[in-house]
Write a structure and sequence with these properties.
The structure holds two protein chains of two kinds. Chain A is an alpha+beta fold. Chain A contains twelve helices and ten strands. The chains are: A alpha+beta, B mainly alpha. Bound molecules: zinc ion (2 copies).
């Protein structure tokens, strides 16, 4: 497998299927693990790091068929390719930007990514489209078991799995769901939801794109505590709150649909119009308008356009993806021109009829 | 200390490593949040926020202890990886698994503060931790070997290398 094979598809996190996929974009679980016989990454010498990388690489290649695995040496990767992996949520920005021996192993369907020598020696991440935390837990737990068969993790009788930062100690587990909440943003209720989640020690944050702007009304909810609760309890904690937020978002959409139908219809139609006709458009503006159109499609205000097409555009129009799809490195200004062109062509070839005009 | 961006007291003390040089920032909660959301991006945000939290907790602990007590705790050094508790306090990252044992008195209130618990109840790896002594010894020996090489004390480095191999071979599982 090669990196370029990934670019055309949306990746697992934006595949747009699975339960509640109109609001729940993806479910993700990651486990932080360290090898007992080595210092943590921040204190590891280059030879320690290289040895850790080698041990983990060897083990990963034993458990996954090489034809179904992409093993990437992140240190040697070009900048645009690192950014590409960040955009696909396969590595963290920290992993892309740090120095020294480090890698990522990705399966063919992009359901898992194993970051080696990130903040911890190993970060096992599993991502499933839609709301599927149980499925994600099952897969991540199995991967963890397989890797551990031949390696000794740093583990403490009282404290559990030992991590470089004490905020991850215990299970080393972060459970998160990515939600698309445009109506809660539009009705200015999102802050209220955040505050109530913080009270039950769940963390909420926006997804950030190129700048500091929250991207496309995507929000991630995850557990903050990792010690003193079992993995199943942590999964349940996040899983229990998701239907509540889905319900809030649906209520807000209903409210908008009922109380300001014309305004809403005008807004999403204008956003759609701009995406189809702009000659220059930034990544941020694209995200914002795609988000609005996505809600419009889900509410039946825009016809002839499918959610998976929009999901693909969310990822294809990001800077590194755009450059890989076009096949050359571009400055920001040129990207804005190419992005507009890409949107026009893609929307033209992926819509049925022109029914949206008649609404 | 005041926040660097406004008149509120600074409760977050962030150490940024830019070009390998640590730069200290003192910010109020609001500006710390702003700073973190600007400087880092998802999913980094979570881990850097966590690191700041750890730092903040460690600093809060300092309250109620005399300067001498604090200095003494700060200077304590892990025999395995060589970091001091001060290094952890200023960077928010531990140096090796053994730190959880040798800095246990300092870390316990911090862990309790973050998690509200001090006992793991979840998954247990099948390879029990009975090898942990040999494992931490390896961390220490590898570091000593590198130091010997740096000091051009090749004889000592050679002895250490042999000892490392001996332990590695007796430990079938890394
Ligand atoms: Zn301030
Ligand atoms: Zn240590």
């Amino acid at each position: 497998m090669e990196l370029n094979d990934l670019a055309r598809g949306p990746g697992e996190w934006l595949r747009g299927s699975g339960p509640e996929a109109d609001i729940v974009i993806s479910s993700r679980i990651r486990l932080a693990r360290n090898l007992a016989a080595f210092p943590f990454v921040s204190r590891a010498s280059e030879s320690d790091r290289a040895r850790v990388e080698e041990l983990l690489r060897t083990r990963v290649l034993q458990i996954q068929d090489a034809s179904q695995l992409l093993y990437v040496d992140v240190e040697r990767l070009a900048g645009v390719d690192r950014q590409f992996l960040v955009e696909r949520h396969l590595i963290s920005r920290e992993h892309a930007e740090s120095h020294g021996s480090r890698a990522v192993a990705i399966d063919g369907h992009e359901t898992f990514s194993l970051m080696i020598n990130e903040e911890d020696h190993l970060r096992i991440q599993v991502m499933h489209s839609g709301l599927d935390l149980d499925g994600a837990w099952e897969q991540v737990n199995r991967l963890d078991d397989l890797i551990e068969e031949k390696l000794t993790y740093a583990f403490h009788d009282e404290l559990g799995y030992l991590t470089a930062c004490p905020t991850n100690v215990g299970t080393g587990m972060r459970v998160s769901v990515m939600l698309h909440l445009p109506a809660l943003v539009l009705t200015r209720q999102i802050e209220k939801v955040f505050r109530s989640l913080q009270k039950i020690s769940l963390a909420v944050r926006g997804l950030f794109g190129e700048g500091s702007q929250a991207m496309g009304d995507f929000y991630q909810i995850s557990n903050q505590i990792t010690l003193g609760q079992s993995e199943q309890e942590l999964v349940k904690q996040v899983a229990d709150i998701v239907p509540v937020i889905i319900d809030y978002e649906r209520q807000a959409r209903d409210f908008l649909f009922r109380e300001s139908h014309q305004n809403l219809n005008d807004r999403v139609s204008r956003d759609y119009g701009i995406l189809r006709s702009a000659k220059k458009i930034s990544s941020e503006e694209t995200m914002r308008r795609l988000s609005s159109v996505r809600m419009g499609v889900n509410l039946g205000l825009i016809e002839g356009l499918d959610i998976p097409v929009l999901n693909e555009l969310f990822i294809h129009t990001q800077p590194a993806h755009l450059q890989k799809l076009i096949g050359s490195e571009l400055e920001s200004e040129d990207r804005n021109v190419e992005r507009a062109l890409y949107l026009q062509r893609y929307l033209q070839s992926h819509t049925r009829g022109d029914e949206s005009e008649r609404n | 200390m005041k926040c660097q961006k406004c008149d509120k007291p600074s409760t977050f003390h962030i150490t940024e490593l830019t070009d390998g040089k640590p730069v200290e920032l003192h910010l109020c909660e609001e500006h710390a949040r702003e700073y973190l959301t600007q400087s880092s991006q998802e999913p980094t945000t979570a881990s850097s926020m966590a690191a700041v939290l750890a730092q903040q907790m460690a600093q809060q602990m300092a309250v109620g202890q005399t300067a001498e007590e604090l200095a003494e705790l700060d200077q304590q050094i892990c025999p395995c990886c060589g970091i001091s508790f001060y290094d952890f306090r200023s960077q928010g990252r531990l140096g090796c698994p053994h730190d959880y044992s040798c800095f246990a008195p300092q870390l316990e209130p911090l862990i309790l503060n973050v998690h509200g618990e001090t006992k793991h109840v979840g998954k247990i790896p099948r390879h029990a931790a009975d090898r942990s002594e040999a494992q931490t010894r390896l961390i220490q020996l590898r570091r000593q070997m590198e130091e010997s090489v740096a000091d051009e004390n090749y004889e000592r480095a050679g002895q250490l290398r042999d000892e490392i191999r001996r332990i590695e071979q007796s430990e079938e599982i890394q």
